[in-house]
Amino acid sequence: MTEALPEQLARLPVHVSLRLGEGTDSFIRRLAQANHLKPSYLRGCLVGPPDYGRGKRPRADRLAAVTGRQQAVLERVLPDLVRYKRARPAPDKPKRRVTTSADKPALFAAIRRDAQEGEKSVRQLAARHHVGPNMVRQALASPTPPPRKKSPAIEGRAKRRVGPVIDVILDEHAAAHAGQLPTIGLVWEKLLDEHDASVSYGTVHRYMSNHPLRNPDTLTRRPERSAGNYLAATQQTFHTNVLKHYQALLTAVRREPARHGLDGSFSAMTAFLLGLDAGSSWSMLTGFQEWLVVRLGRGHDLTWPLLVRHLAPGGWTHPLTKQADAAAVITLHRLLRDFFTIRERPDGLARIFLDYQSWMVTQDWYQLDAAEPAPGS
């Protein structure tokens, strides 16, 4: 039954030209768009049953059936269509021994014992114990194996390229589904269908598995809060990566407000920001009002939307005209960009509150001296 499936596939009416060295996903995307199909749907058909799988490799015979081209031609033009098995090493070639940390003390002792019994070179000792010359030198230098070096995390180019796009997809889905995050498969399909991204399912899976919004432990830490330590607790609670996440969202909202259900007015943008701040447990805009007060030089008793309107070109205007509303929106985005730039610094939030405190002590209404004790007390 499975062998007959490629013959049952209908040949697509519109053909696309082959490009030597092009990736299979790129070719499938061009083929789907030319035939008014979703790339994720066509790719699933080419993977075939029983998976129709996300991240599975499309079958060359099924691709040949829908394109009407010879399978050998497709395999030659599309280099990643078929996975070629690596040639096995010659049987007479000795395999290199993989040494675990638990086996190293005994291995080091054996190397040192052989070296003491006779004059053998490092190369001979390495060949006898099937290890590298560096390990032999370590064993001869000290009987205690050194600790393993921790390799830094490797971040591929595809992850850096699609990471901001995935953040936007997560925001849009959460806004439309009461804060619920999409599945990994849905995000992968949106990347293929709506953003023309050539990315593997595994890359999307790794990115979302480590995303702060999917792992509450990385987004919200619960340190013990003691009196007077609110600033330090807030810094630990709100991760720097989440700030970048909100920056990407606000950039997308500024470019296309209608796509996010906004009319582009200052009142709509203010309501949107208040909702985001509430969703972050009021951590996203921590320090924003204090930072605006220092920037304006007054207004400690005003909320941040009123402070932004005072900082807009032309100052306070009520009611807002069309031009004043547009200027207020532009000013709001500019101020948020500058504020987030400061918040990303290690001491950014602390510096904001220190500047605010320094400003307050210069005001006539601010009283730092304690009340004088009553007579006879």
Task: For the structure shown, list the relevant keywords.
4 domains, single chain, mainly alpha, 377 residues, 19 helices
Q: What is the terminal-to-terminal distance? A: 99 Å
Q: Helix fraction?
A: 40-55%
Round the Cα radius of gyration to an integer and report it: 31 Å
User: What is the string of SSEs from the N terminus onward?
Assistant: HHHHHHHHHHHHHHHHHHH
The 3D shape can be described as flat
Poorly predicted runs: 1-7, 216-238
Give the oligomeric state of the chains in this entry, treating copies of one chain as homo and distinct chains as hetero: single chain
Share in β-strands? under 5%
Mean pLDDT: 78
Task: Describe the structure concisely.
It contains 19 helices and no strands.
